[in-house]
Amino acid sequence: MKITALRTRPLTLPLAQPYHWTQGIRRSFSVNLIELELEDGTIGIGEATVAPDQQASVLILQRLAEKLVGESVFDAAPIRDRILRESYMAFGANTNRAANQMLAGIDFALWDAQGKLAGRPVTALLGGAHRRKVGYFFFLQGDTPEELANHAAEGVAAGERVFYLKVGRVNEKADLDIVRAVRAEIGDARLRLDANEGWDPYRAVRMCRLLEKYDIDFIEQPTPSWSLEALRHVRESVGIPIVADQAAFTLYDVYEICRMRAADMICIGPREVGGIQPMLKAAAVAEAAGLSICIHSSFTTGITTCAEHQIARMIPNLDDGNQIMWQLARDNIVAAPGLAPVNGWLDLPDAPGLGFSLADDVVGAVTNAG
User: Fold this and answer.
1) SS3 151
2) What distance in Å separates the CA atoms of residue 39 and residue 53, rounded to the nearest whole number?
3) Alpha-carbon distance values, 314 to 25, 267, 309 (Å)
4) Calpha distance 259→249 (Å, rounded)
5) CA distance 152 to 166
6) DSSP-based three-state secondary structure for 20
7) Of 104, 306, 353, 361, which one is least surrounded by beta carbons within 10 A?
8) pLDDT value, residue 32
9) Which whole number is the average pLDDT over 141-148?
């Protein structure tokens, strides 16, 4: 079945509330909706993140579309490899990280189209599922200790199991105050922290030692992503488990983290590594090293959530508190299925492809807003 067209629609989605993290404050995010059409009219849908510029990434996707038209939709893996080689590597620079953001969105659309043609979910096309339910964390939002504690109380009332909190904020005291307030609210529930590269090794070791009394489940990417030595130093110096996130952006990063024993777990998503099959490869590398994978989400919609959920069901060495971020947007562009976890668990129906339908009215509104 041949690909006849690839269309791109830029979407801008306001956040439900300001997003506070080490890199600043965000009030919206943008993605490019990808619609891949086959000769029988089947439409496969994906989305690509847009850093650093949305309009520039639209132009890149339009150029990559030239490599797709006329190809078989069933050649997803060789198409991906050829695009990477001819449109990126042939220009003499190792641009895997930039390429993967684009390739992931195309990959989603290819597999969504394949599943729709077969009438089967993507998991059934790639070997089957190890589990039906996938565990997700509760993402705490707010700025002050009071705001975060109040949100934590909502999570406790909803029966959440794993709570996730951004640290590396204004100063040491601010981090300790919010962690103390959240821990007091959630009792014995698991609490995970993410510093988003906010500390140097000295500060990371110091902060971990100060935070140990709050029974922290893990700290994600405390040090700059470009130094696995720094990450390993922190891991070997503190009692809190350390997770690699921004340091894991390619399959080769995953291998190096495993080889160096630089982290206790690897948090990586399809946006970073380039799609669904590359994620399965990354999980296999980690599995061989005895490490689990926590699926990393990002500023994306429920389209990526559905792709991540398909991946999560296939990975044997999966963590039980994976990331989920579609709910941070004010508007949900996925009409069905419902994507809100219940008590921290999500069980989606076995629908064809990635298993979702779009809310066309919402898509139209956020397209116009962009």
Assistant:
1) helix
2) 32
3) 34, 16, 9
4) 16
5) 13
6) strand
7) 361
8) 97
9) 95
pLDDT higher than threshold 90 for residue 100: yes
For residue 30, what are the β-bridge partners? Answer: 12
Rounded-to-integer distance, Cα 106 and Cα 71, Å: 13
Average pLDDT rounded to a whole number, residues 189-197: 97
Q: Token pair of 86, please?
A: 């001819």
What's the angle, vertex CA 2, arms to CA 113 and CA 8, rounded to 5? Answer: 60
Taking alpha carbons only, the member of 281, 9, 19 closest to residue 139 is: 19
How many whole angstroms from its chain centre is CA 117? 26
Maximum CA extent, the chain: 61
Place of tokens 């449109």: 87
Dihedral pair phi/psi, residue 152, rounded to 5°: -60, -40
Select from 153, 221, 147, 141 the least CA-distant residue to 189: 153
Distance CA 113, CA 131 (A): 23
The Cα 167–Cα 179 span in angstroms is 8
User: Over the stretch 294-336, which tens digit does the pLDDT of each residue have?
Assistant: 999 989 999 999 999 999 999 999 999 999 999 999 999 999 9
Average pLDDT, the chain: 96
Distance (Å) of CA 165 to CA 111, 176, 366: 33, 12, 28
Q: How far apart are CA 210 and CA 208, in angstroms?
A: 5
Kindly state the tokens that stand for 200: 């140097």
For residue 93, what pLDDT is reported? 61
- Please check whether residue 107 is in contact with residue 277, taking contact to mean a CB–CB distance below 8 angstroms: yes
Report the C-alpha gap between 109 and 32 in whole angstroms: 12
pLDDT tens column, 20-72: 888 888 999 999 999 999 999 999 999 999 988 999 999 999 999 999 999 99
- Tokens, residue 276: 């669904």
State the angle between helix axes of 145-157 and 172-186 in degrees (0 to 180), rounded to the nearest 10. Answer: 20
